[in-house]
Amino acid sequence: MRSRVIHLINPKTDSLTTRPLYLNRALYSPLAGLLAVAACIPRDQYEVVLTDENIETIDFDLKADLVGISAMTSYVNRGYEIADQFRAKGVPVVMGGVHPSFMPQEALKHSDAVVIGEVELVIDKLLDDLREGQMRGTYKSCKLHPMAGLTMPRYDLLKKHRYVNRTFVQTSRGCHQGCTFCAEPLMNGLKFRYRPVDEVIHEMENCGSRTISINDADFFGTPERPKEVMRALKGRNIHWQAGVTSKLAQDDRMLELAAESASHWTKRPLALVAGLSGPTRQAIAESDIARGIGCHAGLLSLAAMKSASEDEIVAHCEAVAREIPLIGFYLQPAVGGVILSANFWRRFAAIDNVVAIKIAPFNRYRTLDVLRGVHAAGALDRVTLYTGNDDHILLDLTLPFDLRDNGVTVRTHIRGGLLGHWSVWTQSAIRQFERCKAARNQPSVPADLLALDARITDCNSAFFDVANNFHGCIAGCHEVLRRQGLMQGIWCLDPEEGLSPGQMKEIDRVCNEHADLSDDDFIAANLTKWLA
């Protein structure tokens, strides 16, 4: 006798997070709800087939006894098309999810039944009616689930290799914020309902992933509950993320616990660097938080100080450095940087708690201003220098810098890089860095390594769209990855962002002229394995 089959479907949506753009994987799995539905279906009575149309095609010829479709408003019309096609074949369809729950009569024009809200307390009735051939209308529980004893979602149905972030664990449902634009309080109540912490931890430990997305409306919704969960997570080697409201995101103890709970997720030694921005009061507040949660240093953006004098900027840096070890950042003006003198960098490097500087003005004179300033402050042995100059990267990483003061020469090196350069052709870039390190402190530098700097800069000029003041830099990197099969398109978070006029031609040129600098062969040799 043929097993009864329930086919659960997530319709395709036009979203950057659900398209398979990242090594043929989607950034997020949208299947948390359907995995929970599948968990409620008795395994001894039904086979469950799960299809996410974002990453695979729907088999409309599958012999199913029931099709279940979950949909949000943004893609409910595609859900209706799928439902209509299955019903035309005589297959009963039930719909659920946010949109059908709020618009059940609309959804019933395309389906036999609609589940309104949570499924756990109505699934038995729905399946009984299905067996009797009487499944129709709406199914809605008269009460909300107490959240204790929830069945483990059917993670075994998930095609895990097709998603970057694939595991979503609920610790609560509902939300007391009552935001007028949000469906959560109307769907799941204006009061938080919490799962027992031991059940939450059991699911996290047994879901098959050590990277977890907490799928709550507001994980920090009430102060004490998330602290319980985070204390239980300490030492479990679980790396997690969650959505929270900004109010409690400023709670020092909350962030300390968050950092502690994830501190053992890798055995590699890590330097934790926080980004600090804004005017002095904001930067100090951010540094206090960063220090409190275990960050080792803060990388200080000066974009908010564009109209300030150098005296004011130095005072700003001194105030922030009293709170946390500081990394300076000399950013090129084209993308928001402030032009600063050698005297500024002398005064900056003289601040006791400054530990490093990232030099990225894309300008030789301004780069030397930083080195001269650090030398004048007598801080070359204390302040580590990093380059971000993608226009001169190999020579920055290779050559010594001789700095003169009162007839005395001091030689120093830039120690490493924080680079956009390494976002594409990465294997080759790592090999180039190893060559640079090997050439340091040698009596001479090979001529071919010196000459290579110009070729690398030529490539970067096309990828980062120098001709158009860097407007197409992200799309340019995406285009290189797309050509290698690592991405399916060049979409950016800003839908209006893309390649600049003439940039594609420039990328074609450097890919042809400098093909030996690419890592195309390395990517091609490993792509099938990475996408498996």
Structure description:
The structure is a single chain. With 532 residues, this protein is an alpha/beta fold. It has 4 domains: 4-139, 3-Layer(aba) Sandwich (Rossmann fold); 167-261, Transcription Regulator spoIIAA; 271-419, Alpha-Beta Barrel (TIM Barrel); 426-532, no CATH class. The chain is built from 19 helices and 21 strands. The strands form 6 sheets. It has a 6-stranded parallel β-sheet with strand order 3-1-4-5-6-7, with helices on both faces. Strands 14-15-16-17-18-21 form a 6-stranded parallel β-sheet. It has a 3-stranded parallel β-sheet with strand order 9-12-13. α11 links the parallel β15 and β16. It is elongated, with a radius of gyration of 28 Å. The protein starts with a strand and ends with a helix. The mean pLDDT is 90.
Task: Spell out the key features of this protein.
single chain, 532 residues, Rossmann fold, Transcription Regulator spoIIAA, TIM Barrel, 4 domains, 6-stranded parallel β-sheet
Question: Outline of this structure?
Answer:
The protein has 532 residues and is of the alpha/beta class. It contains 19 helices and 21 strands. Helix content is 36%, strand content 16%.
